[in-house]
Known about the structure:
By secondary structure, the protein is an alpha/beta fold. It has 2 domains: about 15-165, Rossmann fold (3-Layer(aba) Sandwich), CATH 3.40.50.300; about 165-205. Helix content is about 40%, strand content about 10%. The chain contains 7 helices and 7 strands, in the order E-E-E-H-H-H-E-H-E-E-E-H-H-H. A hairpin with a 2-residue loop joins strand 6 and strand 7. The longest helix is centred in the C-terminal third of the chain and has 32 residues, at about 170-200.
Amino acid sequence: ANGAGKRMVHNCKVKVFGKDAFKDAPKNITYLGTEWANNPIVRGDVLVSHLLSNMGGDKYPERRDELINILDIDPKWRMHQVSDGERRRVQLVLGLIQPWNLLLMDEVTVDLDVLVRSDLLNFLKNETEARKATIVYATHIFDGLGDWPSHIAHIKQLITYLRRNMVSPLLKVVEQWLREDLRELRLQAEERKKLSQDQDKGLLGNEKPRTKWDDLSENVTAYGDKYYNYWNH
Length: 233
């Protein structure tokens, strides 16, 4: 969920394949996020075929051709003329050409149609099974995932709950989690609101006792000079 803490790292070490993720990061890690599509470089007049060659397409021709077929891209496309959805598909091909041991994906299938997304997920699952690779996928779109993941991480207020062996459809399970989270957030908001109101009313023991001056000062017109003195400095 938004604001759950996916990007926040606790004060502890993060290791990937037994190595420090910040000091000694292992090789063959690929990250695919939404930022790439907004890069001015990939919005210029560049042939897709040139990008493919630069990213290892000639070194891995079979993977390149399979991904081109799955994501339905044309190497003759020019990047300044393609749509956002086509640009996203080019990004995925470029990012997946070279074999990876760990793939980090952040909402990169949002622009894909149903068939392309399904074929891509099947390709990725086959990759993990054939090469024993790992994928960490952050997404709000659960349609079609079904039994695709082996583990589900439910992040709630910076705490990660690891789930596995799901028996219910994934979308239903996640919907239940989100509704529970929403109820808790609303209860917390109500408690904060009530606490703030109580503080304003002085119900926490900070209210000063009411004096005669408080009564008189509320209506100077009614009491006039009988209780009030006026002078100039």
